[in-house]
Amino acid sequence: MQILVTRFHLLLLTVTLAMTGVGMLRIPEDFVFLAHWSGTSADWLWPRLVIFVAPAIQLLLMAIFFLLGRLLTKNQYAKAQHILQPALTALMGVVAATQLGLLLSGIGSDLDFVRVTAFALGAALLLLGVVLYEAERHTYAGLRMPWPVRSDLAWRIVHRATGMSYGLGGVCVLVLAWLDAGIGMLILSFAAALLLPAVVAGLVTVLFLNR
């Protein structure tokens, strides 16, 4: 069967649910997360219930990738599986790491794990951007789309545009982490840095579909 969701993804979901349960037991009901600062005062306050967002996002991601795997043809699935499964793992891993950061913050830990995650993710995206930008055309490597990128020039433009998008996303995440912009801005930057380059890749491939 064409299933992109693996047992490891279920494990990540289980870990995130476990952290959510611990958060409900250990984080006080009246606790608020200071998500963003304006000067010396917090202007974004998130209630304790925000810890339920992470497992909800993971369930949504798993549902989307499950449906995607069933919709792809056998040929498309064979070509894209080695990219889509790691992509789902990365997305769910970032969500799980963010949940751990919220849990540690909620129980009073001094370790800002959301910021640690930001540094790691920013560095990984920057490296991915360089790899995609410098990639040479190969039968089994590079981006995989449902539609073909026919010419070498179009393939190069698509990969350089995507590489620059991921690189820029990585730099932005690193800058926000360095400036300690707050967990709110960091979590939003995670979503933007992971999802927007993928949108850029899809749009550019469509633009150069017949070139």
From TrEMBL:
InterPro entries listed in its UniProt record: SdpI/YhfL (IPR025962)
Transmembrane segments: 7-25, 45-68, 88-107, 113-133, 153-179, 185-209
Keywords: Membrane, Transmembrane, Transmembrane helix
Keyword match Membrane: yes
UniProt-listed GO biological process terms: response to toxic substance
Keyword flag Transmembrane: yes
Protein name listed in UniProt: SdpI family protein
Record organism: Devosia ginsengisoli
